[in-house]
Amino acid sequence: MAIIINGKKIANEILENLKEKTAKLDKKPGLAVILANDNDSSKVYVSSKEKHSLYLGFKSCIYRFDKKVTQGELIKAIHELNENPNINGILVQLPLFEHLNANEIIEVINPKKDVDGFHPINVGKLNSNLNPWAVCCTPKGIIKLLKKYNIKIAGKNIVIVGRSNIVGKPLATLLTSEDATVTLAHSKTKNLKSITKEADILISATGHAKLIKANMVKKGAVVIDVGITKQPSGKLVGDVDFEKVKNIASYITPVPGGVGPMTIACLMENTYELYLKQNQ
User: Fold this and answer.
1) What pLDDT is recorded for position 262?
2) Could you tell me where the DSSP H helices lie in 57-111?
3) Which residues, at least 6 apart from 17, have a Cβ–Cβ distance to it below 8 Å?
4) Known catalytic residue: 140?
5) Does residue 40 carry a catalytic annotation?
6) Tens digit of each residue's pLDDT (9 = 90 or more) over 49-92
7) Please, which residues bridge with residue 204 across strands?
8) Catalytic residue among 113, 114, 116, 144
């Protein structure tokens, strides 16, 4: 039976530490979130970010736009936030309304306030090992989980299923920097099972419920489940067939309560760290 990696517990430790540090500051970190879609999940995520910001004592600004918003209006809002000295981190909640160009909007964010680490300058710095202003929150959280549980990364064969700019690609870069051998698999990968079976650490970030079956996992592997899907019953499940895979893996993250809380905690940590960098 696998050891269950308790992401919620570790995330709470990060948050409590941040709360203590923030209480000692005269001026508080500020996080601005832009929501320009009708996606129910996005609304839940934004509310959670606001709740955590306020809990830590951060300034929290939520900008909600309806379908009538234009590209120019969003860009103008971001320019104003770039110039606002009370805002240290700017986050554009993805996806956006279909008529909006997300890449163009993200590029408008000042890289020094890019709390998600999505700006091309921060992506380039990450890939060049040149200390980006912020590192993408979910990959950062996964690295923290592995290290907290003393799971060795260097020299390990790691397979990531999912090649998004938000998780798969930056995570591959971070793990390579930790001296792992990384394979980045995706929807076009042939014979996926033969590749995942070779993984010492298997990470899935596709959003396809129970994609990873027990026969796809090497005995004793570490399994990190980034996916989250709401089933018709209302139950949340991950990419991994948890109940069966936990009998094969050595460590495994649950859904919910695994990677998700770490993403929020790292977002808050990024906001705090950007505040420090901007006030040096």
Assistant:
1) 98
2) 71-83, 102-108
3) none
4) no
5) no
6) 999 999 999 999 999 999 999 999 999 999 999 999 999 999 99
7) 161, 225
8) 116
